[in-house]
Each structure stands twice: as structure tokens, then as C-alpha cells.
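Action item from last week, closing it out:
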Amino acid sequence: MKNILILGAGTAGTMMANKLYKALNPKEWKVSIVDRDEQHYYQPGFLFIPFGIYQPEDVVKPKADFIPKGVDFHIAEIDKIKSERSEVALTDGRTLPYDILVVATGTVPVPEETEGLKGKLWYKDIFDFYTYEGTTHLAEKLKDWKGGKLVINLAETIIKCPVAPLEFAFLADAYFTDKGMRDKVEISYVTPLSGAFTKPKATAMLSKLLSEKGINVIPDFYLEKVDEDRKVLVSYDELEVPFDLLVSVPVNMGDELIERSNMGDEDGLNFVPTDKETLKSKNFDNVFVIGDATNVPASKAGSVAHFEGEILIENILSYINGQPLEAKFDGHSNCFIETGFGKASLIDFNYDTEPLPGVYPWPVVGPMGLLKVTRANHYGKLMFKWVYWHMLLTGKKLPVSGHMSMAGKVTA
């Protein structure tokens, strides 16, 4: 009996557990998965909790509900990957051998990386919304907040779900408008990017939206520290942005396990050097990487993990059969962008092609509009929660290609 071991039972790991269990002969392969937490969080839903669109209980379910009964599920803390011995050491003293390892350890916000961010104002006047704790605390804060300078800040550019901070700004505009206090709230979007996003056409569309909604964009701002006493963000070139309420997107890093195992990239962010097409580790022959744990130049988002999974299952089966890894991930990503007031936009892109206007997923009929603000896109975003729980996590085939298609896109 051979062992395939998955580290991490988040979106990517759970999806791969289902795909591999269905694809492999249980008499030849044992599939195991390890995670420290029992609860699975629907992380796209964190965005909606501060505004009362979702309640906390809407985004939490037991991880065991989504892992096949024939897969060994270990709730345990991982100490180290011992790649030279093809085994994983747990903190309780056990070791788990593997013939193939799938690293799906994700990424987490690390506010401690920025001076003054996680200090006396944390969860009082400074919040994140990328964690369950952060978003639920922020929801309580917004209920009674009387207004002032609301600052949304990206501490770094490599973050989970790159459009979520923009969505937060748009939803905040709608939320305070509905409460009749938009004139009492000054919203600023402070980013190290030179614009609202990284791609020109999407940046132009999103910048126009921010301007129309009266959201001030402060670009090229590289956060050095937070002056808690004065409630001011300070950049490395000594620019300052004052705030009354700071919604922070802290530095994101991979799991510390990667550093302990000497498997991280040169940037020191604990992401695993990964071939951007095959999703195989660059340094270890029997190790594959998926989702936010990789250092591939694609968005760290659930859609990317899904598209990677379509490629990874093919390549793992090829590896088992001693065949070349011919399936290639093209960097495909698509993201709904909530714009407030029951509407949203949608972008679809990959390594080589920026977001373009058009329709998605089917030519002519859509029904989603690319780089357009529509109600259909908003309903698509809300409907994704059902798709996530019932199809994506359980490894079912979705009616969209893993590779980005140019069908329905306008290139002129």
C-alpha cells in the first residue's frame, strides 16, 4: 500500500482529497489529510459579515463533512516535513510516511510583521477582515461607529484574494449610504500599487468606480509602521495617512511549517517554490503544491485553487504511472468584485492575458458580464457559496474550463 498525504484541509486540500480518493485504487493507495483545525471557513463570506449580509454561522461547517469517509483525516499540528525521509512529523510524536506529498498549507495574515499594527488598537480601532475573528469583531464595531476617517490599507501586494479590499471599500460606501451617514465617513483606499489593481483595463474600470463613489485612492504607499498614539499610517518615505478606523490587509505569509522544513522561497514569505505549469515542487521530486501555498505568479484565490486542481489531478496520475507531466496550468483566475447596491463586476484572466471586457462563461449568452457592473454578477457571487459547499470542495466537475478561454472576450 502506497501513501499520498495532503497537508492542509482548507479549500485546496479538501478538494484534492476528494479528487484523489475518487481517482485512485483504494487497494493500492491510501489517501490521508492533516489539519490543525476542525472547522472549515467559507472565506469569501468574511467580506459580507461586517455589513450584515452574512451572519457568522453562515460561513462555518465541520471539515469532516467534506472529506470522504475512506480518507484518513488527522486533526493534528504538523511539526516538520522531513523530505529526505519522505515523512511528516507531527507535534504529538507521530510520523506519517508518504510516497507523494501534496502541500496545501495556505497563507495567513501576519499583522505582527508591521510595527504598531497589532498593538493596543487591535480589534478596537484597527481590524482585519481576512480572519473569522477579525471580521466578526469588525461587524460589532461598525454597528455603532459614528463616522470619521475610514482607511482601507494593503500592507503588501501578495495577499489572499487581491480584489477583496476593493470590494470592502465598495460595500462600505453602500453600507454607510444605506445608514444615512455616508457624508460622515471619509473613505480612503491606501495601497502600495500604482493604481486600484495590477492590470491596466481592470485598473481603469475600478479607478472610475472608486472615483464615482467618492473613495480617495492613495497609491504607491509602502507601509512601514502604524503610529498608534497619533492613529497614523507611516510609509517608508515618511508619508502619513491619519485614520479613525483602520481596516488592514496585513502582510500575508505561508505557514511557518514551510520555514521549519526548509522548503520556502528566497523571499522569506514561506511559500513553496513551484513549477507554475505542472504545480510540482521545484526542489523535491515527490512533492506537489496547490493553492495559496505556492509561489506561482497567480492570484491567491479559491478560483485559482479550483483551476489548479483540474491540472494537478492529471499530473499526479501521470507521475504515478511514470508518464511526463503534460497538463499545464495557465494561471487562470476569475473573481467577482462586489461593487455595492446589489451589483458586482467580474474579471477573468491568466498568466499572459489581462482581464478583458465581454461575457462569461458562455459566448453571446453569458450571463455574466466581464468588466461590467451588473446584477447578474452579484447573484453569481452569492450563488457561489452553494457551489463552494456542494461542488467545489467535494471535487465535482464545474461547468467551466480549467484553462482560460478567449470565447466571449473582446480584444479590440
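Closing note: The chain has a mean pLDDT of 96.
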